[in-house]
Amino acid sequence: MEFGCCGGVEKSMANNLGDLEIVPNDAPVGAEVRGVDWSEPIPEGFVEVLNQAWLDHKVLLFRGRKLSDSELLAVTEVFGGSQAAKSREFYMKAGFAVGSDRVNKFPAITLISNLDDDGKPVMKNASVGSLELNWHTDNSYTEVPPAGTLLNAHILPVDGGGDTSFSNQYLAYEALPDELQEVIQGKHQRHDISRSTSGTLRPGFEPAVSRDDVEGPVHPLARVHPGTGKTALYLGRQGPWPASYILELDDAESQEVMGRLWAHSTQPQFVWTHKWTLGDLLIWDNRAVMHHRTQVDPTQARVMHRALIKGEPIVSAWASPAAAE
After folding, report:
1. Mean of the pLDDT values across residues 306-316?
2. What is the value of pTM for the model shown?
3. Could you give the CA distance from residue 71 to residue 50 in angstroms, rounded to a whole number?
4. How far is the C-alpha of 84 from the C-alpha of 103, rounded, in Å?
5. What is the Cα–Cα distance from 291 to 138, expressed in whole angstroms?
6. Gap between the Cα atoms of 221 and 140, Å rounded
7. 76 torsion bin: left (phi>0), alpha (psi -120 to 50), beta (else)
8. Which pLDDT score, from 0 to 100, does residue 85 have?
9. How far apart are CA 33 and CA 159, in angstroms?
10. How many CB atoms neighbour CB 203 within 10 A?
11. pLDDT above 90: percentage of residues in the chain
12. What is the mean pLDDT of the segment spanning 61-87?
């Protein structure tokens, strides 16, 4: 079986398994993959090797090509298929038209852009703009979050920020102090649906005053990866109180424990940072890493095309069932 990114029919000399090279980073996550031409059909042998590399290294880097949205979706098929972003629903309810920058004609494609409606770079727009993006995993505020994310650099600022960092949550879980690991056993977190990764309110939402106001699914604080069997911390996203609280703890305890977990899980020894160049494609595993973006220079354009990889129900690390809504 072959996956064709561009509908080619003739057999190409590209994408020979012997030319495939996987170069691990000297870091807790990440590897650069060489020898893949996404404009040509992807042989079945490549699919197995690439998926194993994704499980092994958690973040894969492919350089040198700006993919069309249809090509980006074809890449998701290599890793299990695509999934629509939940934020699409919010923008459509707020009146954004299909085909606009906020609502792509492809449900699984999202533009991560700092441009306003006139195409000019700004600090704030209807999305995340040029703001710093807090540590998070994509779409954790959904019942079935995506397994992974693809991000392809189309327009970049010159020395203008937007670096993306990744933190290995397997290592973060393994390195938890015994006391903190005991505290979080069997605990679950509410994942706030109202705010973006920059901390700003989404269209149509009001700020929560108490935990009773917070909407969003409940997920365990640690999850088992279905492909590796390893346990990872699963914190989702960091927001202002009372977002993202622990159900089994009172307000004060919840804030204290979540603060300790965020500080622990994003320590430098777990992190690798990528500085983008045009055409870079990153594919990361949301089940094993969190990511963060530095602020972007609001006077320079930055446009990235994103696709999500289809997820599966979260496997809790706890023997007890997930907390009820």
Report:
1. 96
2. 0.90
3. 17
4. 11
5. 9
6. 12
7. alpha
8. 81
9. 25
10. 14
11. 69
12. 93
